[in-house]
Recover the amino acids of this structure.
């Protein structure tokens, strides 16, 4: 009798394990993981503060097919876009969704957005509201057109070009927000990184030091503009979401000669092409 009870217990346990595994297999065979990562191509602003009140995805062409993502910390999502440089990014959402065609996502913005600029007096900071069109408040649509396969993870990089997205309204001291966002998929893209230094001579510093806030522009081999970033306090920069191919680097910094890479840099899928240290030359006086 004891042996029968033990066998019965083992059979029930195996059945429960099989059932649990079957549920997991079913889930894995019908879902994929989607991440949305926000980065910034910087502009000439101290801050650009954006409030996102909803992020939705649509797997059909039907306007009634929108479904909201559920970020870990909920909505709204407030972000200063100027902080998303040199490899910094904001993970907007990380979620399991049904497999199939992911056609579009859309960012729904509030009207609580502003830009901070330098004033005429030293260290003066002026905060100005960003006029956000009603179309942005109903949702900025971004095309993805990606087929999600079961069990795979997909990271979509949203590269928000601040300089192109903010338009000054004549001489009215008002600013309009017209978002320009480039979307790429990390599963089929690569990155390009490096460090920028420059010769400095002064009481406290002598020699090459990392340069902060240097403008780094990326162009395709045919001179087509691709993206812009800036260096951080360590002189480091990284440009993510680049399609596989060859690129050129252009760098500008006051007091130094402009730099352009003599050789194209090859970027491959899933890898970071590190160009090493780029030493800027002080401009001749």
């Amino acid at each position: 009798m004891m042996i029968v009870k033990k066998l019965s217990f083992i059979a029930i346990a195996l059945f429960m394990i099989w059932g649990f595994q079957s549920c997991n297999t079913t889930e894995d065979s019908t879902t994929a993981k989607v991440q949305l990562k926000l980065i910034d191509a910087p502009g000439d602003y101290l801050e650009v503060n954006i409030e996102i009140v909803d992020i939705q995805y649509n797997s059909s062409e039907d306007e009634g097919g929108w479904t909201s993502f559920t970020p870990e910390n909920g909505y709204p999502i407030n972000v200063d876009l100027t902080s998303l440089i040199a490899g910094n990014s904001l993970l907007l959402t990380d979620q399991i969704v049904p497999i199939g065609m992911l056609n579009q996502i859309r960012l729904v913005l509030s009207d609580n957005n502003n830009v901070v600029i330098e004033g005429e007096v030293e260290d003066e900071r002026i905060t100005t509201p960003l006029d956000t069109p009603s179309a942005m408040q109903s949702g900025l649509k971004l095309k993805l057109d990606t087929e999600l396969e079961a069990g795979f993870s997909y990271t979509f990089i949203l590269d928000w070009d601040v300089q192109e997205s903010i338009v000054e309204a004549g001489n009215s001291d008002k600013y309009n927000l017209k978002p320009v966002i480039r979307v790429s998929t990390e599963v089929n893209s690569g990155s390009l990184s490096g460090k920028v230094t420059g010769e400095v001579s002064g009481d406290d510093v002598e020699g090459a030091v990392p340069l902060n806030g240097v403008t780094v522009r990326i162009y395709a081999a045919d001179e087509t503009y691709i993206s812009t970033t800036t260096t951080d306090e360590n002189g480091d920069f990284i440009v993510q979401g680049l399609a596989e191919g060859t690129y050129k680097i252009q760098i500008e910094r006051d007091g130094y000669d402009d730099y352009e890479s003599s050789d194209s840099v090859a970027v491959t899928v899933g890898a970071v092409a590190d160009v090493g240290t780029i030493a800027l030359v002080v401009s001749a006086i």
Observations:
- Helices lie at 2-28, 134-138, 162-165.
- Residues 2-28 form the longest helix (27 residues).
- Confidence is low (pLDDT under 50) at residues 1-27.
